[in-house]
Amino acid sequence: MSELSTLILPAAPSLGSLYATAAAGKLRGLLPGSKPAARTVPQVEHRLESLPINRQKLVDYQRLMGDTVRDELPSVFVHGIVFPLAMSVLVRDDFPLPLLGMVHLSNAVTHLAPIAPSAVLTAVAHAENLRGHRAGTQVDLLVEVSAGTELVWRSVSTYLARGVFLGERPSEEARPHQEFTHPTRTASWRLGAATGREYAAVLGDYNPIHLSAPSAKVLGMKSAIAHGMYLAGRALAGAAPHGTGYAWEISFATPVFLPSTVDIAITSALDKTEFSGWGSRSGKPHFSGTVTPLA
């Protein structure tokens, strides 16, 4: 990859304005004579210095997740405060994929060290690895967070733009369906219809697909779905260690429609904790992941 140029943002953009920009861009793309999408990701990183950390939001987040209230930033809370920076890359005019309707496939995060709420954080974000998929086009979004000169958090999020093919449509055949056999249940989550709004109130992600059935239907869903990172945060509240560094990853299978009950399994071995969630009634897998302490 060629060297990236840097765009320094004066302040964290609001997610509301970013979603509005994404919606306007989608409408422009439907107009006659609109220019074709680029076939590469922009060779630029967005940088934000002195990330604001709201201590009350931190407490609200920990309580929402059922986590211990402590002076340490949970990994998904870090994701939440850098998410507007990451989104600002995805809504650029020269970004080749439409943000609205993009599917969140997975996350791989290295939380290198405990992060105090008083830390002065700097974050950079860029996109890379644009590639084809049998259902569209995938892209990776990388975000790195530093406290002073020390890298403390790094995330790779993978997204899929369904039905968007930047080249010829691949001829790859659909993979055979694999039956899912869930592990032994260790807990159940009862997620109410307001779950998406409660998460949004803490971390500001007011994506319409998570807020209500009517707003989700506008984007093609039958009902509102839970934020993927809400599910990750709930799982990590029971699986992640405190006071040390750790790596974690999560893959998403099927959406959690709200309201819903999700059955959970968290199992620990000496070197790794595994977690997964599936529909209590449907039995369909929703997500799975692992947590590994760093040496």
Comma- or semicolon-separated keywords:
single chain; 295 residues; alpha+beta; 11-stranded mixed sheet; 6 helices; 32% strand
Account of the 3D structure:
- It holds the Pfam family MaoC_dehydratas.
- This is MaoC family dehydratase.
- It is a single chain.
- With 295 residues, the protein is an alpha+beta fold.
- 24% of the residues lie in helices and 32% in strands.
- It contains 6 helices and 11 strands.
- Strands 1-2-4-5-6-3-8-11-10-9-7 form an 11-stranded mixed sheet, covered by helices on one side.
- The model is unreliable at 27-36 (pLDDT under 50).
> What does the largest sheet look like?
11 strands, mixed
Count of strand segments = 11
What gyration radius follows from the Cα positions, in whole Å? 19 Å
Oligomer: single chain
Strand order of the largest sheet: 1-2-4-5-6-3-8-11-10-9-7
Mean pLDDT across the residues is: 90
- Spans with pLDDT under 50 lasting ≥5 residues? 27-36
* Proportion of beta-strand residues: 25-35%
* Helix percentage: 10-25%
Number of helices: 6
Query: What class would the helix/strand composition place it in?
Result: alpha+beta
Shape: globular
The span between the termini is 30 Å
Taken in chain order, the helices and strands follow as EHEHHEEEEEHHHEEEE
